[in-house]
Amino acid sequence: MAILEVEDLRAYYGKAQILQGINFGIEEGETFTILGPNGAGKTTLIKSILGLVKTEGNIKFKGEEFTELKTHERIAKGVAVCPEGRKLFPNLTVEDNLKMGAIGKDSDDMLEVVYNLFPRLKERRNHIAKRASGGEQQMVAIGRALMSKPSLLLFDEPSMGLAPIVVENIKESLLKMKDEMDVSILMVEQNVKMALDLADKVAVLVKGRFVKEGDRSSLGEVEKLYFEI
Ligand SMILES: Nc1ncnc2c1ncn2[C@@H]1O[C@H](COP(=O)(O)OP(=O)(O)OP(=O)(O)O)[C@@H](O)[C@H]1O
Ligand SMILES: [Mg+2]
């Protein structure tokens, strides 16, 4: 079953149209990654799904019309976001940041799941978030998104600002997460390795339009095209 269906999605800031009619679907358990350069509209796409920008067109989540729902209602239905720039609560501990993601649900079992995925966070659970390294902070942001047991996880450039070795670590954790958990993923990225190694299917977004789409068999072509942009 499709978990997310997006049809002719257009997004606007005031009169400026940023997304020019985007179409895609994500099946249950699938990971769809979108590569795009700065300003392509990646964050706008994530915000559109969350109901944070003005949109036209159609978004369905688990077969249900999403377009008229408010952000908190969409989240309550099982969408979670790991936002651009992480947006942690800098003065809270790692563990309290994680608990913020549980949106009122009991958090103990999910804390164990997150700590199993990121053992480093268990060691650092009582540390203040702003003192954690960039990689640890990104792990907190991912863990926090998982705490609400979402069926769809939205990732906005999880590799941003991280050294290649740290990106590799996070990617390994996400591959493990994909393996062990029942979750579908929509990821927007500029980092080709992060995007393509996780993808079941992929698209390239330029100036608010998909210029290329494909499944795993076309990843090589997509990579080549992306480097030509
Ligand atoms: N709040 C806003 N008001 C007006 N224009 C905006 C706003 N946010 C973004 N834009 C514009 O929309 C376009 C797409 O921005 P968006 O943030 O979606 O790009 P992006 O692909 O996420 O880029 P990046 O890789 O830099 O994060 C850009 O031209 C940007 O200047
Ligand atoms: Mg962005």
Give the gist of this structure:
The protein is an alpha/beta fold and 229 residues long. Helices cover 37% and strands 29% of the residues. It is globular and about 45 Å long.
List the helices and strands and how they pair.
Blueprint: E1 2-13, E2 16-27, E3 31-35, H1 42-50, E4 54-61, E5 64-65, H2 71-76, E6 79-82, H3 94-100, H4 108-117, H5 119-123, H6 134-146, E7 152-156, H7 164-180, E8 184-189, H8 192-198, E9 201-206, E10 209-215, H9 219-228
Parallel strand pairs: 3-8, 3-9, 6-7, 7-8
Antiparallel strand pairs: 1-2, 1-4, 4-5, 9-10
Helix pairs in contact: 3-6
The structure holds adenosine-5'-triphosphate and magnesium ion (MG).
Notes on the protein architecture:
The chain is of the alpha/beta class and 229 residues long. It is 37% helix and 29% strand. The protein contains nine helices and ten strands. The chain has helices at residues 42-50, 71-76, 94-100, 108-117, 119-123, 134-146, 164-180, 192-198, 219-228; strands spanning 2-13, 16-27, 31-35, 54-61, 64-65, 79-82, 152-156, 184-189, 201-206, 209-215. Strands 6-7-8-3-9-10 form a six-stranded mixed beta sheet, with helices on both faces. The chain has a four-stranded antiparallel beta sheet with strand order 2-1-4-5, covered by helices on one side. Helix 3 (94-100) packs parallel to helix 6. The longest helix is centred in the last third of the chain and has 17 residues, at 164-180. The chain is globular. The model has no long low-confidence stretch (mean pLDDT 93). Bound molecules: adenosine-5'-triphosphate and magnesium ion. Residues 13, 16, 18, 36, 38-44, 84, 190 line the site of adenosine-5'-triphosphate. Adenosine-5'-triphosphate (ATP) is lined by residues 13, 16, 18, 36, 38-44, 84, 190.
